[in-house]
Amino acid sequence: MPNIHGKAYAMNTISPMKPWKTYILRFLFFFWRHYKPLGDGLVGLSFIHFARWVIVPRYAFPRLSEQQPKNDLQYDYLLFFSNFNGTWNQYIDAFSAVLFEGLNLIWRWSEKFPGSRPVTPFKNFIVRGQVETDYYYTAYPHAATNDVKAAHRVQLAFDDFERQSSGMPPAKFAEAYQQFLVKIQSDLGETGEAPVGT
Amino acid sequence: MSNQSGSIYGLTIISPIKDEPHLEISHSLAIRMYLQHLHTILKDGEGPFFKVNSTHMARLVVLDDVVYFGMPSCEEHLQSKYLIFESNFDGELDTYLSRLARDAKEEVHNIWQHCIGYPGVENTDAFISYMKRCQVETTFYFADVNDKSVQQTLRALQTQSAVASFIEKNQGMPPNELQNAFVDFSKRLRNAPPPKPGSTKGKELTDKVL
Amino acid sequence: MSKLDVTDIQGFAMRGYNFPFARFLFLNFSDKEKSRECIGRIIEHVTTGERWDHGKPKTTVNVGFTYKGLAALGVPEASLLSFPVEFVQGMKARAAILSDTGKNSPDHWDPIWHEGVHAWLGVFGLTQPDLERRCPELNAILQEGGGATVIGSQDAAALQINGQFTSKEHFGYTDGFGNPEFLGLEKESQPGQGKLTEDGKWTPLATGELLLEYADEAGELPVAPLPHLLACNGTFMVYRKLHQNVATFRRYLSEKSKLYPGGLEKLASKFIGRWRDGTPVELSPNEPSPAIVQDPNRSVNFTFRNDLDGTRCPVGAHVRRTNPRDAFGFDGALVNRRRISRRGMPYGPYTPEDQPGSDDGEHGIVFMALNASIFRQFEFVQQQWIEYGNDARQGNDKDMLIGNHEGHGKFMIQGSADRLNPPFMCGALPNFVELRGGDYFFIPSITALRMIAAHSVDPR
């Protein structure tokens, strides 16, 4: 299943946009980059490692030789690439439940977008525009983004504790150790295989 | 700089694929077949990105055509197929592209030889130039963790797993023994070989340390 | 919303009867016409959702069908294929998705589940004699004229301790809390059962999370079979016979509690998020509280927003995994489409707490859950929240009590600086619970039963 490597799913979608609408979307993305991170909601959901939107204007598909035929396109294209954790259905259910306004703002400029609620027509729209991944690599396949973040917290706390506890008398060490445990106690989930995709 | 989020670079490359008549296997099909082969050896820890190990996540997608969503939108088609390369990596773009050409030269050649304008991997500068001609600007880039390298992440996962094991093993120990065990443990953790990309299952990470 | 016709909905779907005795009969159909006639005869005995204004009946009867059962009844193929995929495949075929592997794999199930269970007949009784009187009557009706063969049965009964019926299960936990509340289904409302609104109040869930052909929490109708009338007022039941390794559990609890400063009962409460008397740990972390348990306004009325660290109720505790409430933020929006209604009952004799108990023998829970979408509700909870921990930010760690641990895996209890509430790790987890069989059943409305019996299902 090349769409998946470990706990990560590589989703690619493509959707057409009338060129005048592209300007609006560009502005929205610009706005989000500088003022209000769309990131907030994405960080809250915490199941995307990396995601990107790429607007490819109709004349911008690379043409590297005179022999290569020219494209003659009416639409600009919005490409979306996501590296997410969880099943396909879970992912889209969550977005539709919780980030539907943001999704609408991004995709309403695409032709035939039905809105992100209710969820079933939205899923049909995504299926229509989803392109299969042919090869997918992740450096830490057994770690969801939650696991990665937890691991970094543990590393930080461990380094601090190791440094601070060096040379402590045993009783004091034991106390400091308990505090260390309290700090990392929610971050110790084991990494491993993902549940079977349905 | 929309291609960048923190210390992570989001590279999007769209390379037009050759389209020659009278071939038994088209170039796009050949790419697909090769990628399918690469997919089967992923589980053995083999592939181009294990070697270019500043890669967090990367994918290759053959885009046959744009998608028609139905009336009243217009039906249109691409005149070429494209190979999309999406990567999320640490460091500078030029360094990354050079590493691809050098450390993964065989795979890179086997894939991109089917693409228009590909100059080969021997001349790194020419290769970098070519790839940049195919680069498309990432319009909006999100990275959940954007300030840690692949190596830092692998180390952290190892620490996390090892610490969990340590806690379990030493639960209820009297302070003296606990401290000794900990000192010994942190030494072994420091000296443990860094985990390899792809080998990130709990047990795999800690077998080397404990 | 449309008014529900309770006489059309099977009573079992509408509420738990709270009868202490039950027998579940499993049927096989070998002749389409005869089996339809059999269903026709049974319909008048099926208990509906109507209120018992004149006192409880002595027994109740309800019926459900597997996909194979519907096919054996001659339901048209176009209609059969319009059922949700997971129901069509049946639970056995979904084993990989549910982590029913190793000890829980179909290879270890009771033989009946390899024999063609077509229908489930659920008979509940107020007393054992009532049950013993009713079942032979039903048997006779079922087997009349070769309509159906009873290929097996499963008895269940509330555990009796010191001569009193309890709602405990074999590990000693008081069960039966936390069933969701649905719009339009008459029931005493309990704060905490429904979903949270933006201003922190509790409100019932959409009817369509339980019954087919009603709007669900996503504002649409869940996948349902054609025609509309076949689906309407029906629901799906997940039936799982869960054997409990009582000796293993008692031994594990006892051993671990030697190192746990809070003591054995507190440790047990951390495993699931309720003290064994049912007090939610979230409301009373230091001791059980009969006052809370007996107050329906309090016994399920809690949230996790002030305990995101898991200091009171561990992040991976059973009740928190199966109903995260607001633990994931967004006012619980990610949870509202993942609720199930449980109707389960214990089976087998109870071993008093002061004895070691046994892993062998027939005792456990007959788990029965009702939902409009098995895939989106039960299977999701089972796969993502029980057998996996990412949403709870616990990586691959499984539900401590019912996870398929296979001897490894761990459960971390979050704690604080309080000496009696320390961080504590429970490792080398054995399987406390083992799956011994089950399947997915369609619980049709009375109208749908008549249509099936009369062979008048038209899928268009």
Notes on the protein architecture:
The complex is a heterotrimer of chains A (198), B (210) and C (460). By secondary structure, chain A is of the alpha+beta class. Chain A has two domains: 4-131, no CATH class; 145-184. Chain A has helices at residues 19-34, 39-45, 88-98, 100-107, 119-129, 145-165, 170-184; strands at residues 4-5, 8-17, 48-56, 76-85, 130-131, 135-138. In chain A, strands 1, 2, 3, 4 and 5 form a five-stranded antiparallel beta sheet that branches. In chain A, helix 6 (145-165) packs antiparallel against helix 7. The longest helix of chain A is centred in the last third of the chain and has 21 residues, at 145-165. The model of chain A has no long low-confidence stretch (mean pLDDT 93). Chain B folds into two domains: 4-133, Alpha-Beta Plaits (2-Layer Sandwich); 150-207, no CATH class. Chain B has helices at 27-40, 48-51, 93-103, 105-112, 124-133, 150-169, 175-191, 202-207, and strands at 4-5, 8-16, 55-63, 82-90, 140-143. The longest helix of chain B is centred in the last third of the chain and has 20 residues, at 150-169. Chain C has 460 residues and is α+β, with helices and mostly antiparallel strands. Chain C has a domain at 11-240 and 438-453. Chain C is built from 14 helices and 15 strands. Chain C has helices spanning 11-14, 32-43, 67-72, 77-80, 85-89, 95-98, 128-143, 228-231, 246-259, 264-272, 290-293, 318-322, 375-386, 446-453, and strands at residues 21-28, 59-65, 119-125, 149-157, 160-161, 164-165, 195-196, 202-203, 235-244, 341-342, 345-347, 364-371, 411-413, 424-426, 433-443. In chain C, strands 9, 10, 11, 12 and 15 form a five-stranded antiparallel beta sheet that branches. A four-stranded antiparallel beta sheet of chain C has the order 2-3-1-4. The mean pLDDT of chain C is 94. Classes of the chains: A alpha+beta (198), B alpha+beta (210), C alpha+beta (460). The B-C interface holds B 164, 167-168, 171-172, 202 and C 259, 395-396, 410, 412, 424-425, 427. Strand 6 of chain A pairs antiparallel with strand 3 (55-63) of chain B, so a sheet runs across the interface.
